[in-house]
Amino acid sequence: MNNLRVIDRKKETDISTYPPDLIRNFSIIAHIDHGKSTLADRLLELTGVISKTGKNKQVLDKLKVERERGITVKAQSASMFYEYNGQKYLMNLIDTPGHVDFSYEVSRSLAACQGTILLVDAAQGIQAQTVANFYLAFGEGLAVVPMLNKVDLPTAEPERAAQQIESTFEIDASKILHMSAKTGLGVDAVLPSVIENMPPPSGSIDQPFKALLFDTWYDKYVGVVCLMAIKDGSIRKGDRIVSNHSKQKYEVTEVGIMHPEPSPTTSLQVGQVGYITCNMKSVSEAHVGDTFYRDKHPVEALPGFVPAKSMVFAGVFPIDADEFARLDESIQKLTLNDSSVSVHKETSAALGQGWRLGFLGTLHMDVFRQRLEEEYDASILITAPTVPYQIKYRDGTTRFIRTPADFPDVHTMQDNVESTMEPFVLATMIFPERYLGQMLELCTLHRGEIQNHVYIDEARVLLKCRLPMAEIVSDFFDKLKSKSQGFASFDYEEAGYEASDLVKMEVLLNNEAVDALASVMHRTSSVVAGRDMAKRLREVIRRQLFDIIIQTAANGKIVARETVKQLRKNVTAKCYGGDITRKMKLLNKQKEGKKRMKKFGKVELPQEAFLTVMTKSE
Length: 618
What we know:
- The chain is an alpha+beta fold.
- The protein has an 8-stranded antiparallel β-sheet with strand order 12-11-17-8-9-16-13-14, with no helix packed on it. A 7-stranded mixed β-sheet has the order 1-3-4-2-5-6-7, sandwiched between helices.
- Helix 12 packs antiparallel against helix 14 (607-614).
- The radius of gyration is 29 Å and the shape is elongated.
C-alpha cells in the first residue's frame, strides 16, 4: 500500500497534536495460545516501536513466568504512531490474557477501548474463551473486528473457521482478515482495518479533566504507576488531581505513554491512554475503576468495575518457620502488583504461621506460587485449594467459609444451621463431535447439570452445563483434556450459590485432628475420598515405636481407618529356654512401655503427607 508509511517516533514527544478523531484505542482478545502476543510484536515492529531483529518474542509479556509458560498473565499496553492516507494516528494497543482465570484483566482493558480485534486460530477455530471474550466486548458496546491467524499452517482451515465465526457471532465472513502473525503475512492490513472499522474515542478537550483508572503496578523508584484512559480535558505535570473513591489529593509528577516502556510526554489529552505517577505509596490507594478529576473541579463518576472476587483459596506456609518474616515481605511485594490476590494471616497447629490467600483460579494460584519461588527464592508449602462456601443459620444470618477450620462442628450443624451452600459455575465446552459421549459422562460424574448442546458446525459441539466450583479446582481440567485427547476447550462464569449437602472431612492421627489436612466436600464424595486419604497417608507416615491409627471422619462419623504398625524390638531374643513366664514377663513389660509411649509420643508428619493431598490419585 502506497498510502501507508511508518512515522519516526523519535520526533514525537508532544502528543497534544492528536485530537480524538486521530486516536484509536483497541485491544486484542482471543482464546489462550491463538497468537495475541505474536500479533502485538508484529504491530510494534511495523510501526517502528521495536526494531525488526527477528528476536522479538512476547515483547509485551514482561514477567519471567509469562515467557516460560508462553502465556499472558498481565494485560500490557503500548502506544504506536502510524500514518494512513496522509494522516498521523496515535494507536493505543492493549494485549490481554487468554486464560479464563484472567478474564478480570480482559474486562478492565476493554473499558479503556472503543474497539477490539477478535483473533481466531485458523487451525483450531472458535474455542470456549473466544466465545466468552466476544460477549464481554459485545456487552461493552465495542466494535469487534474479527481476524484469522495462523493461516500459513498446513492444518489451517480458514474457510471453516470463518464459517464458524459467521454462524456463531453473525459477522459477515467476507470482512474477516486472513493473516499469519508469525511470518508477517497480511499484518500490514491490520491497522488500516482498525482505523476504518473502529470509532474514535468520544469526549471534549474543553470539559473538566476526567479519567478512568483501569490498571496499576508498583515501581520501587516512583511508587504506584496508574494507567488511565482520559475521558475529558487534559492533564500535565504539576496538576493536582483527586480520587473520586477516597477523595485523596495528589500532585502529578509525570505523565506519559507506554512505548512499550514508559516514555514521558508533555501532557495527556482526551481520548489518549497513558500512565500517571503522583506519589502514591501503596497500590491499596489506587482503586481500579476509580474516576480521577482536577482539584476543585469535581465531575460525575464513571461506572467502575465489579471488584475481583477470589474463587479459590489456599493456605501458604513457609517450609522453614524461620523464613516467615522474609516470606511475609515477599508476599507483600508480589501483591503490590497483583491486587486481585486477597491475603489473610492464619495459624495451623501442624504447619505453624502462614497465610490464607484468595486467587481467581487454579492457574492464577500456580503462577503466584511460581513467581514466589523464582523471583523471591521462597520455599513454600501450599495446601489443597478450596472454594468459598456459605453457611445459612436459622436466625437468618449468613457466613462465608474460606477455610475448613471455620466450618461449623457437628452440634452446631444440628442445632443452628439451616442449610449449607456452595458456589456453582456455568461452564462452556467446545470439542469435536466424536467426544460428546465422554464429555457428557465427565460432567455427570462431577455432579454437573447439562443445560444444552449445539453444533457450531458439522464437526464441533458447544456444550453448556452447571458445575460445582469445587469440582473444577481439583482435577476436572486434566480429565477434560485427557478424555478429549487435548481437543476440548473450557471456559466458565459464576452462576451463584446453591444449597448442597456439605460435610467437613477431618483426618485424625491417634485421635488428634490434623487441621491442615481437613477439607470440605459433598457428602456423596466423603467415603471414597476418606478411604483414599487414609491409604495415601499410611504410605507416607514413617513407622514409630507405637501404632499410629489413621482415621478420616465426615462430620464426626468415621468413614475409613488405616494403621501404621509399630516398630518392635525382639525382647525375648536373649531367652534360650526356661519357663514361659520369663518371656511373658518381658513381653508385658514392653507392652506397658508402648502404652506410656503412645500416651506421650507425638506423630511425626512429613512434608510428603501434605503434598499427597495436592496430587489427587486417579
